[in-house]
Amino acid sequence: MTLPNSLRAQPDPQGNFGSFGGRYVAETLMPLILDLDREYRAAKADPAFRAELDALARHYVGRPSPLYYAERLTETIRKGAAPGMGAKVYLKREELNHTGSHKINNCVGQILLARRMGRTRIIAETGAGSHGVATATVCARFGLKCVVYMGAKDVERQQANVFRMKLLGAEVVPVTSGAQTLKDALNEALRDWVANVADTFYLIGTVAGPHPYPEMVRDFQSVIGTEARAQMLEAEGRLPDLLVAAVGGGSNAIGLFHAFLDDPEVAMLGIEAAGHGVHTDKHAASIGGGSPGVLHGNRTYLLQDEDGQISEAHSISAGLDYPGIGPEHAWLHDIGRVRYEGVTDQEAVDAFALLAGVEGIIPALECAHALAAVPARAKAMRADQIILVNLSGRGDKDMATVADAMGTSI
Amino acid sequence: MSRIANAFARARAEGRAALVTFVTGGDPTPEATPAILDALVAGGADLIELGLPFTDPMADGLAIQRANLRALGAGATSAKMFAIARDFRARHPEVPLVLMGYANPMLRRGPEAFAQACAEAGIDGVICVDIPAEQDASLGPALRAERIASVRLATPTTDAARLPAVLEGADGFLYYVSVAGITGQQQAALASIEDAVARLKAATDLPVAVGFGIRTPEQAAAIGRVADGVVVGSAIVDAIAGAAAAGTDPAAAAGNIVAGLAAALSRQEQAA
C-alpha cells in the first residue's frame, strides 16, 4: 500500500515499491529474510543501536561529509552559458569517507546488525571493489570472517582493490560462471548464503535484493541526503533545484534523493551508464534500455531478451556494470518523481578529466557519469539556481581504466 | 485424478517410492531433449521435471548451471521448451511432466500467458525456485486458473510456524529440499530427512518427494524407504554432459542412470 501523503514511506510491509521490489528468493532463504526483517525493525527502534551507528559514522567513517561549492567548475560551465545563466554546482563529498566511497555508510550499519544477530561470517558481492573493500574494512574492525565474491573479469580489472581486500583479511573468491562480473558475483553470494544459513550474514552493497535489503540499505545511505539537505539550508538558505547522482544498483542516488522526495521544488536526475550508447548492445541502462522482470530477489527494470534471459551489461565503470536497478528507482521512474538518463563511457571519462582539472578532485568513474550530465543542465538553468551532485567515490581505483581510455599507459 | 496423483498412487500401489527425474531442457541441444526424455521414461522414471533454462540459476550448483548455459548456447528458447513438452505429451499421454525453473522466464510474457502455454503443452505442474509462498500472487492464481499444479518447496529452514503458509495453495506434490544449499552437493543425513518427511506428512495429504544431493541407487533406495518420491537431477545432468563431451549418446547415458535408480527403488518393493 502506498501512503498517499509521502513518497518517503515506501515500501509496504512486503517490500513492494508500487509493483516493484518484493521477496523473490528460494524457500531456504525465506525464513532468514523474515528473521532479518524482524531484527532490522527492532534495531531501528533501539536507541542504543542508533547511538552506536552514529558514533561509528562520526569517528570511524568521518561523517558528516562536506558539502562543497565547486566554484571553478561553476565558472567553467558559465563561460559557455548565456548571460545570467549557469547554475551553481555543489558537490556532496562522499569520496572523503573512510575507504573512499559512500559504500561504508551501509557497511557500518549492516555490520552492527550482523553482530546484533550473532552472525560470525560475512559474505558480500562486489563489482568495482568499493563495496568489497568497505565490507572487508568493517569485518577487520569487528574481527569477523569475510568472504567477498567478485567476478573474475572484475578481479582482473580492479587488482588494487583485490589486494586491499586481502590486506584487510578478506578472502576474495573470483567468480568464473556466467559473464564473470557483478551479476554473477551476486548469484554466487546467494549460493553461498543458502548453503551457510546458520552463521552467515549476507551484506548486500546496493539497494537491490529481496526485502528488506532495498529499504535497509537506503535507510543507511539516506544519511547522505539528510546531511546535504541541512548543509544546503545552512549554506544557501534554500533547497537545491536539482539533484544529480549516478545509478548502478542505485545506493548513492537513493541515499541523496530520499531526504528530498517530499520537497516538490527539488528535481532529481539519476544517471545510468549508457556504455557505448543505449541504442547499442553495450550499456548498463536498465531503465533507459530495459524492461520489468525478476532477478536477485526483486522485481525491477532489467536488461533482458524476449524470453527473460538476462543480458550482459556493459560500462567502463565496473561499479555500474549491472543489468538491473534497485526497485525504489524503478518505482520513482514509473511515478515520474525522478528522471533517468544515460551518459556514455566517453562522456564519463571527459567529466572525470574536467573535475580533476578545475577542482583538483579525482572522482570515481561511477560519479563521473553524474558529473557528465551537469554542464548541459547547468547552462539551461539561471545563475541563482543550484545543482547538487553526489560525488560518491574517489577515482584512485580507476587510474588504469581511464589511462587506457585516454590512450596512454601508466 | 491428475497425472501427478496417478503416478504417485501407482508407485505406492507397487510398494515403492516414485522416481522423479530432472533434466535441463535443451541440454546439450534442444534437438537432443526429446530422446533424452523418452530415455528417462523407458528407464523407469515416474515423473519428469523439465528444467526451463535461465541465464542466472542462482539456486543451482555447477552441473546444472553449466547445463543451463549449454542449453541457451545451443539455442534453447521458451517456445522450443513448450514444443518439446507438447510433443512429449503426444508420445506419453500418462507420464506427468513438471516444468521447473526461475521466475523471470516464467513471468516474462505475463503469468497468464505462461500458464496458458503450459496448459496447451500438456504440462501438469510448475516449480518456480524463486517464487516463495509470499509471492504466490505473481504466478499461483494464473496456474490455478489453468489447473496447473503449483508445486511448492519445503526446506530444512522451513519451520513449523511457516509450514502452513508454504502448504497454502500447494498442489501435485510437496518437494522437500533435503539440504540447505544448492543442487548437486552432498546429501543430508538420512535421520534428519526421515524426521522432516514425517513432519511434512503430518501437515499435508500431498505426496512428499525428497531431492537435492541424491546421486546413487543406494541413496535413492534409502530415501525411497521414508518418502513418497525420490528426485534425482544433477547425477543425470552430469551423465548427459559427460556423454555430450565424449561424443556418445546423451539419451543412452541418461537412460542408464535412471534404469539403475529405478531398479533400486523396485528392489525396495521386493524387500518389503
TrEMBL record, chain A:
Keywords: Amino-acid biosynthesis, Aromatic amino acid biosynthesis, Lyase, Pyridoxal phosphate, Tryptophan biosynthesis. The modification N6-(pyridoxal phosphate)lysine is found at K103. It comes from Sphingomonas natans. GO terms for molecular function: tryptophan synthase activity. PROSITE patterns: TRP_SYNTHASE_BETA. It comes from the Bacteria. Pathway: Amino-acid biosynthesis; L-tryptophan biosynthesis; L-tryptophan from chorismate: step 5/5. CDD domains: Trp-synth_B. The beta subunit is responsible for the synthesis of L-tryptophan from indole and L-serine. Residues 63-393 form the Tryptophan synthase beta chain-like PALP domain. Pfam families: PALP (PF00291). HAMAP family: Trp_synth_beta (MF_00133). Tetramer of two alpha and two beta chains. It catalyses: (1S,2R)-1-C-(indol-3-yl)glycerol 3-phosphate + L-serine = D-glyceraldehyde 3-phosphate + L-tryptophan + H2O. Its EC number is 4.2.1.20. This is Tryptophan synthase beta chain. Its cofactor is pyridoxal 5'-phosphate. It is an enzyme of class 4 (lyase). Belongs to the TrpB family.
From TrEMBL, chain B:
It holds the Pfam family Trp_syntA. It is an enzyme of class 4 (lyase). It comes from the Bacteria. The active site is at E49, D60. CDD domains: Tryptophan_synthase_alpha. Its EC number is 4.2.1.20. Pathway: Amino-acid biosynthesis; L-tryptophan biosynthesis; L-tryptophan from chorismate: step 5/5. Keywords: Amino-acid biosynthesis, Aromatic amino acid biosynthesis, Lyase, Tryptophan biosynthesis. SUPFAM superfamilies: Ribulose-phoshate binding barrel. Transmembrane segments: none annotated. Tetramer of two alpha and two beta chains. HAMAP family: Trp_synth_alpha. The alpha subunit is responsible for the aldol cleavage of indoleglycerol phosphate to indole and glyceraldehyde 3-phosphate. Belongs to the TrpA family. This is Tryptophan synthase alpha chain. It comes from Sphingomonas natans.
